[in-house]
Design a protein that fits this description.
The protein is an alpha+beta fold. 45% of the residues lie in helices and 16% in strands. Helix 3 runs antiparallel to helix 4 and helix 3 packs antiparallel against helix 6. It is elongated, with a radius of gyration of 49 Å.
Length: 280
């Protein structure tokens, strides 16, 4: 009916509803100019290199670096020198134990000597006849000094060292080394091929012209030594010691212990030309 309102929900087909325009398409991202990423990467690398090189070292850092280098070099040299010059490098455990026992024995001998001297002093102080006691001790001291000076014969336990030299390679300093090693081990009297060896003895020559105190001796060289055998033999057989040194020169060295060694080669007693006793 004309003029009547349109029923709810009815639609006027003749009139069209406004239609919303379609959404605009998103614009594609702008393309980067060619080579822009490469320039950024090269620029960052250049900045990194310029930051690291040349290195910026302060004076304090340089001084510390030099000190550390010097300390390290010194330690390396010391370790190398110690390892190269050590005479006992590579020694077996039983050899090291034997050397330690030898040092203990030397210490014990010194302690025994100290005890003996203290006993003598006590006897002198407590003896009723001090003059007689002093005379006895003087005689004993003279006998001991005579053995050391080679003016009296001696006997006692010890060893015999025989050195063979088939090639003539044994030098005088090798025999002298044996004497010094024996003295360090407590040898009290030594005789080599009929020549008494004392504190001022000297060795010269080699091979067929070996001499002791000017007296010619020939191989085999036989050392008769009085002392404690348990100390003397290990002293010659230590690693790098007398026996090994002689064997390296194609010489032979044998050591035999004995309960009685006789050292009967004597040296003439020397009278001083100028020195006189100052005792009254």
């Amino acid at each position: 009916m004309p003029g009547s309102p349109a029923a709810p929900g009815s639609t006027d087909r003749g009139a069209r509803e406004p239609v919303a325009p379609p959404p605009a398409a998103e614009a594609p991202p702008a393309a980067e100019p060619p080579g822009a990423g490469g320039r950024d990467e090269r620029g960052g690398r250049s900045r990194l290199i310029s930051a690291l090189w040349p290195p910026r070292v302060t004076r304090a850092q340089l001084v510390v670096a030099l000190l550390l280098f010097g300390l390290g070099l010194g330690l390396a040299i010391q370790v190398s020198s110690t390892s190269d010059n050590s005479a006992l490098r590579g020694a077996r455990q039983e050899d090291l134990v034997r050397i330690l026992d030898e040092l203990d024995d030397r210490t014990q001998r010194l302690e025994d000597e100290k005890t003996r001297l203290e006993k003598q002093r006590s006897e002198l102080e407590s003896s009723s006849d001090q003059a007689e006691e002093a005379r006895k001790q003087t005689q004993e001291k003279e006998r001991q000094l005579g053995i050391l000076a080679g003016t009296v014969a001696a006997e006692g336990p010890g060893i015999t060292l025989s050195v063979g030299d088939p090639t003539g390679a044994v030098e005088s300093d090798m025999l002298l080394d044996a004497i010094q090693e024996l003295r360090a081990a407590g040898a009290e009297a030594i005789q080599v091929n009929g020549v008494r060896v004392v504190a001022d003895s000297y060795f010269t020559g080699s091979g067929d012209d070996m001499r002791i105190d000017g007296t010619q001796v020939a191989a085999p060289y036989v050392f008769k030594v009085i002392g404690k055998p348990e100390d003397l033999e290990p002293a010659l057989n230590i690693p790098g010691g007398v026996v090994q040194t002689l064997e390296k020169e194609q010489a032979t060295a044998t050591v035999e212990r004995s309960a009685k060694i006789v050292v009967d080669a004597l040296r003439p007693a020397k009278r001083p030309d100028y020195a006189q006793s100052s005792s009254q």
